[in-house]
UniProtKB/TrEMBL annotation:
InterPro entries: ARM-like, ARM-type_fold, PSMD5. This is 26S proteasome non-ATPase regulatory subunit 5. It comes from Papilio machaon (Old World swallowtail butterfly). Belongs to the proteasome subunit S5B/HSM3 family. PANTHER family: 26S PROTEASOME NON-ATPASE REGULATORY SUBUNIT 5, 26S PROTEASOME NON-ATPASE REGULATORY SUBUNIT 5-RELATED. GO terms for cellular component: cytosol; proteasome complex.
């Protein structure tokens, strides 16, 4: 059978050179290999090659080109990951540099197979030219090809990156989209290890990114900030930015943004950048870059509820997720307390999207379980602070009553956000005691007839699990809470059970 397959395939590829109408022949080849076992097809293809098929790409007829790509894909699919590169290296290089988009997509997809799983046996270094070609395709005008090239280039063995990064510099002379693709690859590489970060620095990419922040292209500037923030949270990343003055330059740009008529679009990017760093290093950022804090608190007081305020709320909550973040925020004093009061006001009076963001922000400030490095037991200062922050929700009293009403909100997104805040509150003994004090709250939580989304049912269940062993409740309430936990979040009485109860 293998000899018959080779003879048949040989006849087909010979006809491709002599026949004017090649579509029927291409379809014959496609049909031939579509149903062949991979081992048989692979032997035939490696023996006779695919050169004659690839020559069919060099025509103007788009239908012929598309059909040829289909045939090649059927052929290539018979090979294991990376095997096409091993057997047809020259052909893959040709396909990667082809002028037709569909051909480049076919080739880059084939290269992607060699890196999408743990292909430790594939010798990337031996085929470095293929991967250099792919790295340069981050500039491709076809977005799909460029994105796939970014993914491939970001997931290569460390030993090939000196060559890859050197050859990829052509992207820095292209448009902003291509440069952002290069920066994304660089950031993905830089985050892998201090050694690879140093390589990216030595190749000049990091300094180039920072210098490009002076651009007038706002979208480009924001993309750079987002990418910089990815490795800035690494100790070696922040160390470099501080040592080389990169962070100082970015802080200066925040001040300049305030006088820019487009500050409403630009400031959120800077808040996200410094916020992501302050989440890890709040003490250092607060001390050295007060311009960030001032901009953050001004944004929280901002009337711009479409861009600045949502990002400011998210940023404040992200910083306050950690215990250190909470303590550093509290140390700011009146400016922070005023911000907390504003968050409470937005929960009560904000539009729906802002109300949800504010609920999530306050939940992050109050929660003590989102910090993986938290001490056990929790710092007593945090217990006292979080209680005061929550009670500012409805001064002088009644914060839990207000949260009870919010939990009953008919809008699913608001209800879920309220449950998230309640869950954060119930991480504290004072929160459990406040829930026990509000008449009807526990009964509402235990009421399975309330219509909830799946997410809300799960959030409600998590809260009840917290309360099921709390000393804030009497034994009969604890028994009901524990029964709810045993039954699970989605328990429903069957109609038969109900009918039997009614009959009794």
């Amino acid at each position: 059978m293998p000899n018959e397959d080779r003879e048949l395939f040989h006849n087909f590829i010979t006809k491709l050179q002599t026949e004017n109408d090649i579509k029927p022949i291409l379809n014959d080849i496609k049909n031939m290999f579509s149903f062949k076992p991979p081992s048989n097809a692979k032997n035939t293809l490696t023996c006779l090659g695919v050169s004659n098929i690839i020559r069919c790409l060099d025509v103007q007829d788009k239908a012929n080109v598309d059909l040829t790509c289909e045939v090649l894909k059927v052929c290539f699919d018979k090979f294991g990951a990376g095997d096409v590169i091993k057997h047809f290296t020259g052909h893959i290089m040709y396909l990667l540099r082809h002028d037709k988009d569909c051909v480049r997509r076919l080739a880059v997809d084939e290269v992607f197979k060699s890196v999408k799983t743990d292909q430790t046996s594939f010798p990337v270094a031996q085929h470095i030219d293929v991967f250099v070609a792919v790295a340069q395709m981050i500039c491709d005008k076809d977005v799909g090809v460029a994105n796939k090239a970014v993914t491939i280039t970001s997931n290569l063995p460390p030993e090939v990156y000196p060559k890859i990064l050197e050859e990829m510099k052509i992207a820095l002379d292209e448009n902003s989209s291509s440069k952002c693709n290069a920066y994304e690859v660089v950031c993905n590489i830089a985050m892998k290890s201090p050694e690879l970060f140093t390589l990216c620095v030595e190749q000049g990419y990091i300094d180039h990114m920072i210098s490009e922040l002076s651009t007038d292209d706002i979208l480009y500037q924001l993309n750079i900030l987002e990418l910089l923030s990815r490795f800035a949270v690494k100790p070696y990343g922040i160390h470099y930015l501080v040592k080389e003055g990169g962070l100082d330059k970015i802080a200066t740009l925040i001040g300049d943004v305030q006088s820019n008529p487009l500050s409403g679009l630009m400031l959120p990017g800077y808040l996200k950048f410094f916020g992501s760093i302050a989440h890890h290093y709040p003490k250092e950022i607060f001390a050295k870059y007060p311009v960030f804090l001032n901009s953050l608190f001004e944004a929280i007081e901002s009337s711009d509820q479409s861009v600045q305020l949502p990002v400011a709320l998210d940023t404040l909550g992200f910083i306050g997720t950690t215990i250190e973040g909470k303590l550093c925020l509290a140390a700011i004093g009146a400016q922070f307390i005023q911000a907390v009061d504003k968050v409470g006001d937005l929960i009560k009076n904000g539009i729906t999207e802002i109300k949800i963001r504010a609920l999530n922000c306050l939940a992050s400030l109050i929660s003590v379980e989102r910090d993986k490095a938290k001490s056990n037991p929790v710092d007593h200062r945090v217990t006292l602070m979080t209680r005061e922050w929550f009670r500012s929700l409805n001064k002088p009293n009644g914060a839990m009553e207000f949260l009870f009403e919010t939990v009953k909100n008919p809008f699913p997104d608001i209800k879920l956000a309220a449950f998230i805040l309640l869950d954060a509150v119930c991480q504290h003994m004072w929160g459990e005691q406040d829930v026990a004090r509000v008449a009807g709250f526990v009964e509402y939580l235990l009421d399975r007839s309330v219509s909830d989304t799946k997410e809300a049912k799960e959030a409600r269940y998590d809260i009840i699990k917290r309360l099921a062993h709390s000393s804030a409740f009497e034994s009969n309430i604890l028994t009901r809470l524990q029964k709810y936990v045993v039954e699970g979040p989605f328990y429903m009485e069957t109609n038969l059970q109900v009918a039997m109860e009614e009959g009794d």
